[in-house]
Amino acid sequence: MIIRITLLFFLMLQAASAPAQEDALAEQTVTTETQSSDAAKATAEASRARQRTLELAAEQRERLDQFIAKVRRTSDELVEIQSLDYGGGAAATIVGIEVRRRSNQQRDALSLLIGAFADAQAVGVKTDAEENIVGDLLKQDAGSLKKQILVQKERIRELVDLTGSSASPEQRLAAEIDLTLEMPSGDELFVELADNFRLQERFGLDITTERNALGKALQMRALLIEGLIRATRDSIKTNDKTSAGQSGGARERDLRRLKDLRSTFAGSLRATISLLDKSGLDSAVHKQALITLTGELSDDILNPEVLTGLVGDWSNTFFDWLKSSAASMVFKLLVLVLIFFGSRLLAKLAQHLVRHSMQRSSVTTSHLLREFLIKMAGRFVLVVGFLFGIAQLGVELGPLLAGLGIAGFIVGFALQDVLSNFASGLMILFYRPFDVGDTIETADIRGVVEDMTLVSTMILTFDNQMLVIPNSKVWGDVIRNVTHQRLRRIDMEFGISYSDDINHAEKIFFDIVNSDERVLHDPEPNIRLNELGDSAVVFIVRPWVKTEDYWPVYWDTQREVKRRLDAEGITIPFPQRDIHHHPAKDTKPSA
Description:
The chain is an alpha+beta fold. It has 15 helices and eleven strands. Among the domains are: 317-414; 435-481, SH3 type barrels (Roll), CATH 2.30.30; 487-567, Alpha-Beta Plaits (2-Layer Sandwich), CATH 3.30.70. The chain is elongated, with a radius of gyration of 55 Å.
């Protein structure tokens, strides 16, 4: 019985779990199918990637082969052109230009080839054979560059020979123009050769011998260029002597042409020094020569070797100059000192002669003009002595005077106010509105002129203040010269009362004026009843006196009038006004 129950329970349990097992089995089947599908997709993707890689590799190889063929073709054409021999003249120049053009084309093709080579390696293309081919092409390009350098070196030698004194001026001019073109071209050739060597090292080629040869060639080129700069510098120094018969414009053109040529040589020397530095070679001597020959400072002077060399060269040059020129220089300095002292003595003598001649002259001149001429005579002698003295030291007076003219223009522009005062001083000098000792009124100032210069006027006021006034203010304002005329009229007014006798008062005024010996009778005094004022009858009293007697007569007359009028009983009225009051009339009508 128990066995039956157990069997029945087992059958029921199996029947209940059958659907779950079927679901699990179905799920497992789906998972397996999904995994199989993903694997198939991955396999297909990998296959397509391999196909793309193969296609890219084939494309890169084809591109690489095309560039190799192009470089070979341009290289063969360049070799063929270089083998041509047209001698000298214009044909050789044309061939040289074509060689440079084809060489640049080959260089561009090589750059594209090396870029394609790197792209091919990046996608896994085996380039062992192509690497050897590229190395051979680089060597061939280096050989072509070396040949061009040799041709260009010979060309420069011929041009330098044509710049000699044996050549005609036209030949020298043409050679100098060609040199300004050939030198930068040579710099480019050396730069391209150095770049070629770096590419050869990149491809694992041994170029030790070639690098050593390049270093020696650069050193020799630097020495050659230094010699050319020295020769050009000497030509610049002697330009004035060799072109003494030329006009100023022709001389300036020759000088500018030589300076341009020197700048070209200096640029080539800088390029050569840069290549020496990149090659790890010593260039301190050439940097030192560049600074010495051109006089242009650069950051190379911070190099201890360059600085030490420069100091040594300058010291040697100074001591050599001292040995060869010390005695001559000492003699010239003594002559210069004697000239300066002699100039001072002659300047004082010139001032004395001018002063003496002006004192004896019958022509009336102002104090300012006299002082101006006296000082100018002395200063003119000093300037002539100074110029003569520095000329003994070898200083060229033409450039010095030109430089002083430019400096004078700059200083004059900066000192416009001073020049304005100077111009006003010249106007005062020529028109002479006043002189030293005159009493003037100007710029709201009244006083006696103590001194005058071309820049300012010094006035002593009556309260003993010394004022220095710029001449621009004096000339730009109204100038009233009180003491310029020999005679002056004193204008005075006196008032008496309306109740006093005007005839008696007039007689008193005449007596006072005529009794003063300082009053002039010609022109005669003018005494008139001038005004019937608000509070007085006003007389004008206008005597003529010498200018120096003006104030004494004025003050004495005022005092005497007051004393005499008081004695005669004539009233000097205070200002007064009579006021009359009129009462208003009553306008209202009567009641």
